Amino acid sequence: MSEEFEPNIVGFACNWCSYAGADLAGTSRMKYPPNIRIIRVMCSGRVSPAFILKAFQMGADGVLVTGCHPGDCHYIAGNLKCEKTMGTTRKLIDVLGIGEERLRLEWVSASEGSKFADVVTDFTNRIRGLGPLSGKSQG
Amino acid sequence: METAEIRIGVYICHCGINIASTVDVDRVRDSISQLPNVIVSRDFKYMCSDPGQELVIRDIKEKGLNRIVLASCSPRMHEPTFRMTIQQAGLNPYCLEMANIREQCSWVHEDREYATEKAVKLVSAAVAKVSLLEPLEEKEVEVRPEALVIGGGIAGIQASLDIADAGFKVYLVERESSIGGHMAQLDKTFPTLDCSACILTPKMVEVERHPNIELLSYSEVTEVSGYIGNFHLKVRKKPRYIAMDKCTGCGMCAEACRMKGRIISEFDVGMGKRSVPYIPFPYAVPSKYTIDPENCLFITKGKCGKSPACKDACSSDAVDFEQKEEIVELDVGTIVVATGFDLFDAREKPEYGYGLYDNVLSGLEFERLVSSSGPTQGKIIIDGKEPKNVVFIQCVGSRDKSVGNEYCSRVCCMYTAKQAHLIHEKLPDAKLTVFYMDIRAFGKGYEEFYDRVREEGVRYIRGNVSEIIKKGDRLLVMAEDTLIGEPVDIEADLVVLATGIVPRRDVKEVANLLKISQSPDGFFLEGHPKMRPVDTATDGIYLAGCAQGPKDIPDTVAQAKGAASSAMTKMARGKVKVEVTTASVDAFVCRGCGRCVEVCEYGAPNLEEVEPGILVSQINDSICKGCGACSVACPSGAISMKHFKNEQILSQIAAVI
Questions:
Q1: Which of A131, B227, B337, B490 is most exposed, with minimal Cβ within 10 Å?
Q2: Are B644 and A42 inside 8 Å of each other by CB?
C-alpha cells in the first residue's frame, strides 16, 4: 500500500435515499476512494451521537452521515432531526478536540449516484489533508 | 430470548466476475473463517442461484447454523431472496445480515488490495451484527380493497379500468374538469392512424359508467399519510360553480356568457377560444360545465351585467356561485401515480422563433390545428391560407443538454412522421421537409410507417436548424445538411417543432406529497430500472405512463396495466407483510419523560400511567414506522430499535474500522 496516509472513514447512509444513491454509484460504475465503510440505517435520524463518538474512539478519522434531502425524508422529518443532532455532535467533538470538520452531513437522493461519489471523494481528500486523528484512544 | 450458541455461516458471492475481479474472494473467505462463532465460511460463483441457495439451506440443516451472512450485492437487491432462503431451512428470516461488497465495493473501487481489505471489513461488520441479531416475528396488515389513481390521462384511465374490472373500488382523481389527458388532444395516432378520440372516448365513457369507479374530477390530492394497505388521503374538490347533479351539459351558459369567445382555450393550447363556463372538449367526461373562476366577471369583479348571464340562461338552475371547495377524505390500500407530463416550452430555444412568429407551432398546437375537433375543424389554414411549404424540426427540447434534457422523448420522431402524413393527405401538393438528428422508429410498425411517409415524398434532411428568421410573410429556415456538409435554407409558411416531453411543473411537490423519488431527468423514479419498472421505493405506490418517463401510447397502456396488476396483487391477497423492525420500550428503564412522544412524527409512543404517578412510554407497533428517531432522543436508553439496536450498530462500527 502507498505510504500516503489512508484515513478510516465510517459512513452512515439512510436506507431510502442515500444508501440507494450509494448503490447507484456502484451500478453506474463510478469510482471513489475505498476508505469509506458504509453502515446502513433506516433513517439518518437513527444516527445517534453515541455512534459518532464510538467511531472516533475506535479510530475513525472521519465520519460521513448521509440522508434524504429536506422534504424527501421517508419518515417525514428524520433528516431534519439528524441535522439538529449532528449540529450538537459537531460542537461536542470540537470541544473534545476531534475537530468539527471530521464530521460531515450531506443530503444524497436515490438518484444522486454521482453526487455520492463526489461527496465521498471530497470528504476522503479533506480528511487525508487533515491527517490522522491524533491522541485517539483505541478500544 | 434465545440463549443457544451462535453459529454463523458466511457466504461470499463472486457474482460471476462482478465481485471476484476486484475482490480477492479467497482471502475474504479465509480471514472471515477466523472470526469467533463463524462455523463455515464459503465462496460461491452465484449465491442467488438455486445451487447457491441450496448450499446455505444444506449448511443450516447439517451444521446447525442459526445466523447467516451473505456477502454479495446490495441488500436492496437480494435481502428478500435470502430471507426466504433461510426461512425455507427453518431459520427466522431476520437472522440474516448482508454485506454489500458489490455496489459499495467491487464496482466502485479499482485497487484489488484496497477493495479486498474493505470487503473483509464489511463482512466482519456483518458478522458482528448478525451475532447480535434477534429473531423477529413477522407481521401482516390488511390491504384495503380500494385503490387511488392519480391522473385521468390514458395511463390513469387504463389502470382504473383494470383495477375496477377486477372487482376493486377505484377513486380516480383528475385535476382538470375532464379526464382524457393529452391523448384527448391528439388527432390521429401513429403508426396505425387510429383516431385518438375514437379509441379513447369509449374508455372515458366506461370510466364514468363503471360501478366500481368513483371519478373525482376537478380535484387534487392534498394530503397522503399511512402506508401500504392503509393510505389515508385528503382530496380537494375545487368548486365548479355549476352543480354537477343539475348540469345537463347543454351549453346554454357558455353561449350566453358575456366573455364568450374571449378566453384562450387550454385544451386547444391557445389555438382556439372559449367562454368562461366551459367543457374542455365536446366528448369530455364528465360532460358537465365548469366556470373558470380566474376569468369570470362575477367572481373576479362581483358584477356581471345586471345578473350573471350564464345563471339566467341555465334552464336547470345549475349555476351556483355559492359553491365552496370541499375536502374529501379517503382510505385506500394502494395508489397508482399517473400524473403525466408537460410539453417542452419551445421559447427556451429562441432560435426557432416560437412565440415570436405565428406560423411556428409546437407539436401539440399542430395536433389541434389538424384535428377535426379543433378550432379550424381540421382545416390546415395558416394566416388564412393553406401552407405550401412545411418544415418540421425534430428533438426540440429533447437530447439537448443546453436545456437540461439529455433524454430522448421517444414520441417526437413518430408524431412528426404522422403529422407529415396528415398534411400530405390533406394538402398533397405541399412540400414537406423534416430536419432530424437520428430517426428512432423502434416500436411495432414504426419503421414501416416512417418508410411509408418517406415514400409519400416527405424529405428528410439530417441536420440541426440553426435559426429561423422572417422573410416577407414567410419564414426562412437555415440549417446545415450534415450528411453532405452544406448549408440549406428552406422557405416555409409553416414550421412545426417536435416539442419533447418534460416532467410536470409540480412534479417536485407531488414527489414530496407521496414520498417518492425522482430520477435525474426529473421524472418519478422506479423501484428498479429493469426488474421493478412500475414500483416505487414506497410499497403500495405504483407508477404508470409518462410520469415515470417519456412513452408512447402502447407503452403507457402496457405500463398502466402493469401498475394496476401490481396494485391488484396486493389487494387480492388482502394482506401484506410489513416491516417488523419497530421500536420497543424497556419499561423498567423508561422514566416517562415523553421525549419520544415529542419526537415521533406518527404518534406511535404514548405515556401510560402504569402505577399512580408513574408514567411509562408504550409504543404502538402498528403505528411505528421504524425510523429510530425516538431511540436517539431517549435520554435513558430505554428505547431500542429492533434490528438496528444500539449494540448492533456499535458492533458494526467497531468492526469496520
A1: A131
A2: yes
Q: Where in chain B are the domains?
A: 3-130, 139-238+326-341+503-578, 252-313, 343-501, 583-641
Which three three-digit cell numbers place residue B260? 364568450
Q: Where does B343-501 sit in CATH, by number?
A: 3.50.50.60
Burial B190-216 (b: 16+ CB within 10 A, else e): bbeeeebbeebbebbebbeebebbbbb
> Would you place residue B577 in the very low, low, confident or very high pLDDT band (cuts 50, 70, 90)?
confident
Which value does ipTM take for this structure? 0.96
Q: Return the CATH number at A66.
A: 3.40.50
Note whether A37 contacts B118, CB cutoff 8 Å.
Answer: yes
Report how far apart, in Å, the C-alpha atoms of A80 and of each of A66, B7, B649 are: 12, 40, 21
- Inter-chain touch B515–A23, beta carbons under 8 Å: no
* Torsion sign across C-alpha atoms B503, B506, B509, B513: negative
Q: What dotted CATH number matches B139-238+326-341+503-578?
A: 3.50.50.60
- CA–CA min distance A134, chain B (Å): 16
Domain assignment present for A42: no
Question: Distance between CA B345 and CA B368 in Å, rounded?
Answer: 17
For an interface test with A, give the residue of B96, B117, B517, B651 to mutate (most A CBs within 10 A).
B517
The C-alpha of B650 sits at a distance from chain A's nearest C-alpha, in angstroms, of 6
**Grid coordinates belonging to A47:** 444516527
Residue A70: all three cell numbers together? 429536506
Domain B3-130, CATH: 3.40.50
Cell of B254: 357558455
Cα torsion angle, A40, A45, A46, A49, sign: positive
Which tens digit of pLDDT belongs to each residue from B72-93?
999 999 999 999 999 999 999 9
Question: Does the pLDDT value for residue B112 go beyond 90?
Answer: yes
Mean pLDDT of B14-37: 97
Q: Which residues pair with A103 in a beta bridge?
A: A63
**pLDDT of amino acid B63:** 97
Substitution target in A40, A58, A116, A127 with the highest count of B β-carbons within 10 Å is A40
